[in-house]
Amino acid sequence: MNEILIKKNLAPNVWLMGIFSPQVAKKAKPGQFVILRVVENGERIPLTIADFDKEKGIVYIIFQVVGKTTAILASLNENDSILDFVGPLGMPYEHDPNDKAYLFVAGGLGIPAIFLKVKMLYSEGKKIDIIVGGRSKENIFFEDELKKYCENLYISTNDGSYGKKGFVTDVLKELLESGKRYDEVFAVGPILMMKAVVDITRQYNIKTLVSLNPIMIDGTGMCGGCRVLVGNEVKFACVDGPIFNGFDVDFDNLLKRNLYYQDLEKNAFEEHKC
Ligand code: FES
């Protein structure tokens, strides 16, 4: 169980893995995630379910090596197994069936978190535009896969090596200023990016959902690790989210909480590399 059946390198330090987990694959829905533990005494990390194959019992995850746990995970190969692979967790993505036009904005490693939703909406005949952004051309992946399910795929890179030079929010601004309108915008990526998207869509009063990825430990609403402030209420991203109304999220609070652990994570990663 939890055997790695597929391992592919998508971009520098970004890996796709197909994990054999029929129980998770059977129940998985767009928007949900898994929590995995790679080795005994290792930390638990949440990862979005990027895709799944119910018949073959495979769940696909995509991750970037950013710390000790993801470095250990990336060192595993096909036929190795992951110690714990728990899910599906979180509330599935819900949308208004009357909405017709959607815009997805994915920055950094946000692509895995939009893929299943895009596929589902496409199968319902919705109109979909997508903006993806990364630091550089080599950080853009899944382009061909996304193109199959959308009308327009806009790309931005910070260094201008591919697509428009700048940020996803520059493309978003341009689209909205040119008169494009959507029933829903869905943003996922770095906290500051999601905050910037919401600041723009608020001016146009376009419903905007965001997918949050705070620190998680148990994934069951018990530990409080993933506490976020939404509409001045405390919510737990693992059980109440990870998707929330972007207009209600206190992004500054989320940023502060995520920074608490940055040094610890950095130190663990440095020690692991030694
Ligand atoms: Fe523990 Fe959400 S991860 S409450």
UniProtKB/TrEMBL annotation:
It comes from Caldicellulosiruptor naganoensis. This is Sulfide/dihydroorotate dehydrogenase-like FAD/NAD-binding protein. Signal peptide: none annotated. InterPro entries: Cyt_c3_hydrogenase_gsu (IPR012165), Dihydroorotate_DH_Fe-S-bd (IPR019480), FAD-bd_FR_type (IPR017927), FNR_nucleotide-bd (IPR039261), OxRdtase_FAD/NAD-bd (IPR001433), PyrK_electron_transfer (IPR050353), Riboflavin_synthase-like_b-brl (IPR017938). PANTHER family: DIHYDROOROTATE DEHYDROGENASE B (NAD(+)), ELECTRON TRANSFER SUBUNIT (PTHR43513), DIHYDROOROTATE DEHYDROGENASE B (NAD(+)), ELECTRON TRANSFER SUBUNIT-RELATED (PTHR43513:SF3). It comes from the Bacteria. CDD domains: DHOD_e_trans_like1 (cd06219). Pfam families: DHODB_Fe-S_bind (PF10418), NAD_binding_1 (PF00175). The lineage of its organism: Bacteria, Bacillati, Bacillota, Bacillota incertae sedis, Caldicellulosiruptorales. Residues 1-95 form the FAD-binding FR-type domain.
